[in-house]
């Protein structure tokens, strides 16, 4: 019985295991903050690429699309090199802190949000363009209108980004260092426990992580449905 | 009524709507001339109906006049100073994915109407076009007729000097057509210059002050509506009114 992953997960939760809650909270904080920062940067970037024509636009779209598949360890390596003592941003002293983990995850999530929102906004623009020109809207005025009208699609894109952030382990392991009580998150704990041969605990943590992601998705779905019903 | 709207109404009632001139305008795409060369001036009271068979270039002419397209050659110009305030109602209304009233408020915001007066202007316009009951309904679940009236209400809140309408009733039932025509008359009475395309002869008879008749990308005739319907000058217009198939 004690070796059953669900039993372990349940007992971890029911016993209000302090270490577990700390890990869960840190995981959520880092991933949500990373997605928020990536959205603030990525959605306007996606809309801008959809709206403006400039030399190298095609190349930028290809790069953004390609970076959706950026391997987390590569993102981690880039952030690691930048933040290490000798690196260009070494002075910030962020390496092996939650801040570094947020930066690494922003790097992973930003291309997803920018590339997918670019596609959606461009689609919407095709439909709205004549009306917008008729209303005398400048391109920069079109950005907030298009982003708001694409809000349901953007919510789904946001979830894809959150999924990427909360599931990855390579980048946060490299730049966070999996330090207990400081930078240990769910995915790095699972790696650690698996390495130690503590498979039930690793699986238990997996179950908790999966439930969390489910919960966030359910909330987003519910919010989406409520607003969709109210505003169409 | 707000000061904003009142001042606009007063200004549009005092001076006649701006005259529109096409000076040797040509529009071509990939070396194929789709419209023109055409020259005309709209300065009579109107409403001006642009008529002709499908593919004659009616929509092109409207888009060139409104500035959605740039002529390949020639010039489109307006009397008076600067570019007059314009709005356009399309065949398929393009509405934002928000409530009816939010669509109007957005148009007002884009036109830099002070935030405080937006809601009042928007609800007044919805009321005028019989849409009060669905002001908070998502615009895109409204019926076809309601959507077109909402597009007209959006044009109304902008108090345009010129209103372009591109086949605004072609997808509507008789009751909805009647409502749209009433709205067009209301705009006309407010002193807005109306330029509208239609291929419906009866509708043109009901609304037109003057008619521009197009076929094959050329203007065949621009005459007052009495002349156009009773004694059309061009052979193409004669055939069109007689119900023959004109290309």
Please summarize what this structure is.
Chain A has 232 residues and is mostly helical. Helix content of chain A is 79%, strand content 0%.
Please provide a written account of the structure.
The complex is a heterodimer of chains A (232) and B (247). Chain A has ten helices and no strands. With 232 residues, chain A is an all-alpha fold. Chain B is globular. Chain B contains nine helices and nine strands. In chain B, strands 5-6-7-3-8-9 form a six-stranded mixed beta sheet, with helices on both faces. In chain B, strands 2-1-4 form a three-stranded antiparallel beta sheet, with helices on one face. Chains A and B meet through helix 5 and helix 6 of A and strand 5 and helix 3 of B.
Task: Set out the fold topology.
The complex is a heterodimer of chains A (232) and B (247).
Chain A: H1 5-14, H2 18-51, H3 57-67, H4 72-83, H5 98-134, H6 139-149, H7 151-167, H8 170-176, H9 186-196, H10 199-231
Helix pairs in contact in A: 1-10, 2-5, 2-6, 2-7, 3-5, 4-5, 4-8, 5-6, 5-7, 5-8, 7-10, 9-10
Chain B: H1 3-14, E1 20-29, E2 32-42, E3 48-51, H2 58-66, E4 73-78, E5 86-89, H3 100-110, H4 115-128, H5 144-157, E6 162-166, H6 174-189, E7 193-197, H7 201-207, E8 210-215, E9 218-224, H8 225-230, H9 235-241
Parallel strand pairs in B: 3-7, 3-8, 5-6, 6-7
Antiparallel strand pairs in B: 1-2, 1-4, 8-9
Helix pairs in contact in B: 3-4, 3-5, 4-5, 5-6
Summary keywords:
heterodimer; A: 232 residues; mainly alpha; MetI-like fold; 10 helices; 0% strand; globular; B: 247 residues; alpha/beta; Rossmann fold; six-stranded mixed beta sheet; three-stranded antiparallel beta sheet; 9 helices; 23% strand
